[in-house]
């Protein structure tokens, strides 16, 4: 099935002045005095904290071995895929070599980067399940310099069933990625919204987990189960796994509710909550239609700046 492209959103390389009603500025969070400075975007003020923004990193002299970060939350639609694409693109802007791994049979990460997953002959499924298929047979370049994609499509759903009877079934992804780690600085794995075997594979080979949490009423529900799963993977499969951080997404500073949820997230996770906060804005669905990250689609937007801040924080942690 072709990705529906119901409209061609207008590219706006300029500032955010003409954002629609859904577009809101983080600057109005916390206090009512709007700050004109764009650098405050996604700042700590959402949580009422005041930390310095993470430093702008220098491009590395050499590349690899990669840090592997699983972007996970079994709750659907919280911004895992959007965060994987845009964090990856922001890291690439800072000179990092990035591999994005689409580990969801829906293939949304691939679609978000302009790839039609159903047209692919080889995907991560073949890499996991077939001897003789190497990562290089599957990896695709993206429109972002320095950022590659390991695409997936619906075939991956069969892998989850087929892996169950395999020896070392939780380490299939780790085995598949091993050979390319030296080439990249960061590998981001976009997990599907479940705690099944695919997500366990991602956690088993990751150095750390990034949890996007939507600033909505039920967002904290189910997080205990996710943390429990992370603990079990740490105990049984991957003792080095750590929680990289919690990313507040879908933040709408116009509502008290969203600020209250954010406050609860900060109470629950403390310093693990990134200062970067991702506002709810129509810009993100637009980037999916455009098939490119917000950092190139609307480079001066709040959303792009917020993901750049996140990238700096990730590099500093
Ligand atoms: N900050 C945002 N503001 C508004 N819409 C957003 C934002 N982030 C993501 N979206 C949109 O919300 C939808 C879900 O986002 P995304 O696909 O990133 O979530 P997900 O957690 O990967 O979902 P799933 O669990 O289905 O894989 C998408 O249509 C996306 O364009
Ligand atoms: Mg997704």
Automatic annotation (TrEMBL):
Where are stretches of biased composition, namely Low complexity? Answer: 29-44
InterPro entries reported in the protein's UniProt record = AAA_dom (IPR025669), DNA_Partitioning_ATPase (IPR050678), P-loop_NTPase (IPR027417)
Q: Where is this region: Disordered?
A: 1-63
Main role?
A: May play a role in septum formation.
Query: Which residue intervals define the domain AAA in the entry?
Result: 67-242
Q: Name the source organism.
A: Pseudonocardia sulfidoxydans NBRC 16205
Skewed-composition ranges (Basic and acidic residues) = 1-13
Q: Where is the composition biased (Acidic residues)?
A: 14-28
Family statement drawn from the similarity comment of this UniProt entry: Belongs to the ParA family.
One matching Pfam family: AAA_31
Protein name, per record: Chromosome partitioning protein ParA
